[in-house]
Amino acid sequence: MATEVTLRRFDLSDVDAMMAWASDPEVAAFCRWAPFASTETEALLAHIRDTALSHQWYRAICLAGDARPVGSVSLEPTADPCRGELGYVVARAHWGRGVATAAVRAALAAVFGEVEGLARVEALVDVDNAASQRVAEKAGFRREGVLRRHYWHKGRVRDLVVYGFVSGDPLPPSHEDEVCKPLTRLGLVRPASHSVQRTRLGDRWSEKRQPGRRSARTR
User: Fold this and answer.
1) Of 29, 54, 75, 133, which residue is the least packed, with the fewest Cβ within 10 Å?
2) Residue 207 lies in a domain
3) What is the pLDDT of residues 6-41, one digit of tens each?
4) CB under 8 Å, gap of 24 or more: what pairs does 169-174 form?
C-alpha cells in the first residue's frame, strides 16, 4: 500500500508524539542529540516552543489522514545563504515504510520555492548509516563524495557521505510504496491566486539539543 505524507508546522500539542522518537536510543544513535528521558516532557516542550515554532523551515511529518507527527524534517542554514543542510528523523515504529523518503522528497519539492536565494540542499550522512543513505538516494539526492574524519560524534571521529540536490535537479518519480501527495494538497504550494511567503535562511543556529533535527547523519 502506498505511503502518503503531509508536512506541517509543529504545535505545542505535538510534544507527546515527538517524545516517541526523542526518547528512543535507536533513533538517536546517529543523531547529534542524546535521547531524552521519557520524564523530560517540559524540556521537550521547551524545545518545541523555543526552536521548532520559530524555525524558518522545520516541519512535522504526518501520515495521510492523521495529524499526529511521526517524525520531522528541517532545513538548517550554513555559512552560505544559498545552501542549506537537510535533516530528518522518523519514529522507529515507522521505519522501513517509505515515510522518510516521501517526506524528504516533499521537502525538496518545497524548499526552493519557499526559501529565498536557496540554490543547493545538502545531506551529510554518517558513513555507517546505510538506511539514511538509501533515503537520500531514493529521494533524489546525488552522492558527491566522502568527507573523511570530518566530525566528532559521541566520542568518535566520523566520516560523512555528502549528498547534494540543486535547484533544477529532477525529483525521481514516486515508487508505489512511497507516494507524495501533489504539493497543492500538501499545502506547500498554493494556487497562483495566493501568494507564497518566502524567507531567507538566517545565520547558523547554535548546536542545541534538537530531537527534531535528524541530520541526514542520522537514521
Assistant:
1) 54
2) no
3) 999 999 999 999 999 999 999 999 888 889 999 999
4) 169/140, 169/142, 170/140, 171/105, 171/108, 171/109, 171/139, 171/140, 172/105, 172/138, 172/139, 172/140, 174/2, 174/102, 174/105
Residue 35 lies in a domain: yes
pTM of the model: 0.81
Does residue 148 lie within any of the structural domains?
Answer: yes
Residue type (1 letter), 203: D
Q: Which domain does 43 fall in, by range?
A: 5-183
* Long-range CB contacts for residues 149-155, cutoff 8 Å, separation at least 24: 150/124, 151/217, 153/30, 153/32, 153/126, 153/217
Question: Residue 83 carries which DSSP code?
Answer: E
DSSP annotation of 94 reads G
Residue corresponding to grid cell 508546522: 9
The CATH number of the domain holding residue 24 is: 3.40.630.30
The amino acid sitting at 69 is P
CA 7 to mean position of chain CA atoms: 10
| Helices and strands: H and E segment counts in the chain | 6, 7
Flag whether 133 is in a domain. yes
Contact 171, 138 (CB under 8 A): no
Say how many domains are in the chain.
1
Q: Which helix (H) or strand (E) holds 114?
A: helix 99-114
